[in-house]
Design goal:
Layout (H helix, E strand, L loop, with lengths): L1 H45 L4 H6 L8 H21 L2 E7 L1 H5 L6 E8 L5 E6 L13 H6 L3 E5 L16 H14 L7 E7 L1 H10 L11 E5 L5 H13 L3 H16 L8 H5 L6 E6 L6 H10 L4 E6 L7 H8 L1 H13 L1
Helix pairs in contact: 1-9, 6-7
Amino acid sequence: MLDSGRESIKEKRFFIIFVIVVVLVGGALLLWGQHNGAVKVFDAACLRYDIQKIRNDDKDWQMTEAEAARREELLADAAAWKASAGGERRTYEAVTASTAVEGAPLLEIGYDFYDRGSDTTVVILHGYDESAEESEIFAPYFWEKGFNVVIPDMRGHRGGDMEATTFGVWESLDLYDLIKAEGLDSDDKTLIVCGRSIGGDAAVLLAESGDLAGGGIDAIVVETVYSNLKDYELHCLRHEFNLGNLFVGEMLDTLVRRAFGIVTQDVDLRSRATVTKIPAVFIAANENVVGGSMTKAVYDAWAGEKRLVWLPDGRYPSVYADALDSGEYDAAVSAILNIIQ
């Protein structure tokens, strides 16, 4: 009886130890898997690894035949404008990010300057996973109004490099350096920044920056911006990766903080908009890539003169084309120009 009791105790102990080991190993494997998931999301989002595959698998990124045809028309118009405008290729040093943030690389970034001899200059910033060439579709509109146009490359999108995009944060500092390099912030000049997606985020962040005095920006025209970087992260985790904040989201925040010195929830365009008083145009659609409600939230909070071009049936790939074709884009931008000129 005594021996059988001892055997029973040993069996229970073995079973308890076995369960503990299984739980610990399972938990470790779960955490390891979640960590790998966070790394993959970081690489895809910030370094754009395999981002084209993600876009191709997401119907919200894909263009319809009609949207693609209209975009080709805009690109053809932009190419014709570029050939006739005769821009000059220049470079500037993106020093502010490298001095403000440990680990941020010192970059020499190229840009095209199209000089029309105007006191008003429009800097055009492209969107996420796009290029300076694609953002040229915005240029003919402003050129026809007699303005100079500046179209820079953006970090993390220059091709063949290992740079990361920081979703407008470091890019806003690069924009500041570009403005300073060209002297676009002088009192006798008018500066407008036009941006889409991360380009729009950079424009809003710099316009809201008290430390940099808004970069001397007189007005912004932005399309499809996020309201808070953490909210946008959660949206992307759900929409593009079918993941949540628990484990993966928290680990992703740690990776972003270590790599860029950025606390995602602190990058809040909506709250900072409440103290930004320059005129602004916001363009957004009821789309699901960024989420049009985020742009509307920043618009609602904006303290300065503002106009909203809202496209309830629009989609992310064709926001600019739809706004331009509707006439609402011109009406909104013209209203803002009347204020600053």
